[in-house]
Design brief:
By secondary structure, this protein is an alpha+beta fold. It is built from 9 helices and 14 strands. The strands form 3 sheets. Strands 7-6-5-8-9-14-13-12 form an 8-stranded mixed beta sheet, sandwiched between helices. Strands 2-3-1-4 form a 4-stranded mixed beta sheet. The longest helix is centred in the N-terminal third of the chain and has 18 residues.
């Protein structure tokens, strides 16, 4: 059986529904119908299936028709969306990652991490991130709740807030009250990851008291402005670059630098680590750092490579994104 070529048209709309994927081929192609579907629905994916035999062997369904179909689809998309992405060669790597994204939107989870916190099987990790749109002077907030196996329990998203790097107490309280209904026991323990500088320490203490959480950790996970880490040997006067290794970190009492971007190790480029700062809590910096590392092993972005960020921050980062596109990665 010949596999068809795929053409994927994508724009960033919310969670998947039954109408989010419009699938068609030459035999069922009707530009008027497709255009109406684009106008009337919040479709996230339009997949155009082309049988290579049709393109090569048929005068009617030849390359000119093939290009014409795509031009018509692009025109229909332009009428509604300012940005979209087209894959003209959807290889097996891209296809696998597209399926990963579709699966995640349908709450299919293709990973399971064994006890990130082995001392507390019911432990929950919280991710907090802001996305800013300077054109509209607004901010999007996302707070994620991740269980001890790296699975997304739930998320809280608030869009169109006033542009600000600091989250108001009332909004934080609303987010945690919403998520607290998913907490598993009365003595729930939390580790909270804040993307960037944690400027809401006092307010988070008040929120924890309000929702009766007594044991919790506050952690900064900083991805920008962090120095590179290089590995060199000067053995017998010969300076040689050495491969780093995943999970390597250096630390002081409340600060660590952790290598998570394993891809850089394969290409022998200097890894850019995450900066992790312990702000408050009962866990040591070594525990917090290793937890961040294992949370990057939820392959939520690319099925072939781990992400640089832990899934707590990665999911919050994506959901708070203020642009029009979420890009897929090929390899």
């Amino acid at each position: 059986m010949l596999m068809p070529d795929f053409f994927l048209y994508k724009e960033n709309i919310s969670p998947l529904t039954k109408e989010d994927v419009i699938l068609f081929d030459y035999e069922t192609f009707d530009i008027n119908k497709i255009s109406e579907n684009i106008k009337s629905s919040n479709s996230s994916y339009i997949v155009h299936l082309i049988n290579p035999l049709h393109v090569k062997q048929s005068d009617i369904l030849g390359i000119n028709q093939f290009e014409s179909v795509n031009k018509q689809i692009v025109k229909a998309l332009k009428n509604k969306y300012s940005q979209y992405i087209i894959f003209n060669d959807l290889n097996k790597y891209t296809l696998a990652n597209v399926l990963l994204k579709l699966g995640m939107k349908n709450k299919a989870i293709p990973w399971k991490i064994n006890s990130i916190d082995p001392q507390d099987p019911q432990h929950i990790f919280i991710g907090i991130d802001l996305g800013h749109d300077h054109k509209t002077k607004s901010t999007n907030l996302t707070v994620t709740a991740i269980d001890n196996q790296g699975w997304l329990i739930d998320k809280f998203t608030k869009k169109g807030l006033q542009l600000n790097e600091v989250i108001d107490y009332e909004i934080l309280l609303e987010a945690f009250l919403y998520l607290s209904h998913k907490f598993l026991n009365k003595n729930q323990q939390l580790t909270i990851h804040r993307d960037g500088i944690l400027k809401e320490v006092g307010d988070l203490h008040k929120v924890m008291k309000k929702i009766n959480i007594n044991q919790y950790n506050l952690v900064e996970v900083i991805k920008t402005g962090v120095p590179l880490i290089g590995f060199y040997s000067n053995y017998r006067g010969h300076k040689t670059y050495l491969d780093g290794f995943q999970g390597y970190y250096v630390y002081t009492e409340n600060l660590s630098y952790l290598i998570t971007n394993d891809q850089s190790l394969k290409t022998k480029t200097a890894p850019k680590p995450l900066k992790i700062r312990r702000i408050y809590g009962y866990k040591q910096i070594t525990e917090l750092t290793e937890e961040v590392y294992w949370l990057t092993k939820a392959y939520s972005q690319n099925i072939f490579e781990p992400t640089k960020l832990p899934i707590t921050i990665q999911k919050a980062n994506n959901l708070s994104y203020s642009g029009d596109l979420i890009q897929f990665t090929n390899q």
